[in-house]
Write a structure and sequence with these properties.
With 460 residues, this protein is an alpha+beta fold. Helix content is 26%, strand content 26%. It is globular and about 65 Å long.
Length: 460
């Protein structure tokens, strides 16, 4: 039996609008994969590739597209997605002859995207060995001449996999998808040994220092609307009747049902990342409240819902820390950042998570805004990376907040210091915009969006 991909009904109109606007186009399919069927939620065209060398020609056909460029776009898009959603394939639009010539390239792009997301641990269920991973990824082809849609799937776990035909069916389903909400209090301290001039060397040690927290989230229990539920039950299965007079905590949102998820740690492990004596060490502290939003299809089990929430928390935290490493690496050549390495301590305010709705849906996507950024910065990134046309009024800016000056000062006073060390007034490190996919995509960056959160770099 062939695979069926259900595409949200609104994509039919979206695809019709793409015809005639571009001679050819390539992009990402974002949705949710299951072992039985897949759900395509939106299509995200990839920005045209930018070249630093003016002499280098830009891609003129699908065959010339860089698979690394598309994979990097997929990595950045994944950071902006809520739990339960991820990249599940690629789409391409071109005339018949160009599409035929590009078949090897499309397959190459598909596997390159999966490989990069897997390497960065941005794929859903990559850590849970008990969860059978949905391995089929999709290539959707749109013919600009006949406007025919051709859908094929590949077993992404097999490099020698060949294409299998699949059905692409439009259907209205997003309005029935449950919304899973979680607010998580975070209190993490990661000791780091600074072994190189390049601040980007923090990345590996930060990742290792966060593993106890990641493992705690993975092994945590979860309650749904205040109740422990059977993991095999459907998330929308009627809850057991409560005492007379009490109502269910399940809330109705504009579309779908809202469920409150609370994660309960079963075994909190201390950070085991050891710091050796050196001329320069650092302490990374992350404190505050993280806003987590996830979505699953209406036939999903309680286990599926909890897994989506855990993935959102872990993926979001790791992605933001990775963005911070990129920021430090690219900024380490600046004099004001070099001074941080000799004038401790330095406090860097971490950014907050800014949300926006996918048009005509209740599904939230997000951006990460630094303390010195304005709403327009987030708006530009969301519209450019996700190819949306939302307005500033549609941004949700108050789901999280960045620390104020009082929080920044308290962060330094409350942090530990070596015996006899003198403390100085903290200074906020100036940033410059970080370019990831070039000018076409623009700046992006973040650590942890939290209620009172900060990054403290302290040296001995």
């Amino acid at each position: 039996m062939g695979k069926t991909i259900f595409a949200e009904d609104g994509l039919q109109e979206y695809i019709s609008l793409l015809y005639g606007e571009h001679p050819w186009l390539i992009g990402l399919i974002v949705g949710q994969c299951t072992n039985q069927k897949d759900f395509a939620v939106c299509l995200v065209p990839s920005p045209k590739e930018e070249s630093e060398d003016e002499a280098t020609e830009k891609p003129s056909t699908l065959e010339d597209v860089s698979e690394y460029w598309i994979a990097e776009h997929a990595r950045q898009v994944t950071r902006m997605l809520p739990g339960g959603l991820g990249v599940m394939g690629v789409f391409a639009m071109a005339p018949p002859n160009a599409m035929n010539d590009a078949q090897p390239k499309l397959r190459q792009v598909l596997f390159a995207v999966n490989k990069l997301l897997r390497k960065r641990q941005l794929l859903l269920n990559v850590r849970d060995e008990e969860v059978e991973e949905a391995r089929d990824w999709t290539i959707l082809q749109m013919c600009t001449t006949t406007r025919k849609l051709t859908c094929r799937v590949f077993d992404i776990s097999d490099p020698r996999s060949t294409a299998r035909p699949a059905d692409w069916k439009f259907q209205s389903f997003l309005s029935r998808w449950p919304y899973l909400h979680c607010r998580l209090h975070v209190d993490i301290t990661v000791p780091v040994q600074h072994q190189a001039v390049d601040c980007g060397q923090y990345s590996k040690q930060i990742s290792e220092g966060l593993m106890p927290f990641v493992e705690t989230i993975e092994s945590s229990l979860a309650v749904v609307n205040g109740q422990l539920r059977d993991p095999k039950d459907g998330i929308e299965t009627t809850l057991s009747k409560r005492k007379s007079g009490k109502k269910s905590a399940t809330a109705v949102v504009s579309d779908g049902m809202k469920y409150s998820i609370e994660l309960l740690a079963q075994n909190v492990r201390p950070c085991t990342n050891k710091v050796k004596n050196s001329s320069c060490t650092a302490c990374i502290q992350v404190h505050g409240v993280m806003e987590s939003r996830s979505y699953v299809h209406n036939k999903a089990t309680v286990a599926d819902a909890i897994q989506a929430v855990k993935e959102d928390v872990i993926r979001s935290l790791q992605a933001r820390l990775e963005l911070l490493s990129d920021e430090l690496r690219q900024s380490s050549s600046e004099e004001e950042v070099k001074e941080v390495e000799t004038d401790p301590p330095a406090t860097i305010a971490t950014p907050k998570r800014v949300f926006a709705k996918l048009p005509t849906t209740h599904i939230s996507v997000c951006d990460y805004a630094f303390r010195d950024e304005v709403a327009q910065d987030s708006l530009d990134r969301i519209n450019e990376l996700l190819n949306l046309q939302i307005t500033e009024e549609e941004l949700e800016l108050d789901a999280e907040k960045v620390p104020d000056d009082g929080d920044m000062e308290a962060s330094e006073k409350s942090s530990f210091s070596p015996p006899g060390a003198e403390r100085e007034e903290g200074q906020e490190v100036k940033r410059r915009p970080v370019q990831y996919l070039g000018a076409a995509i623009g700046a992006a960056g973040a650590l942890l969006a939290a209620g009172v959160s900060y990054l403290l770099i302290k040296q001995e």
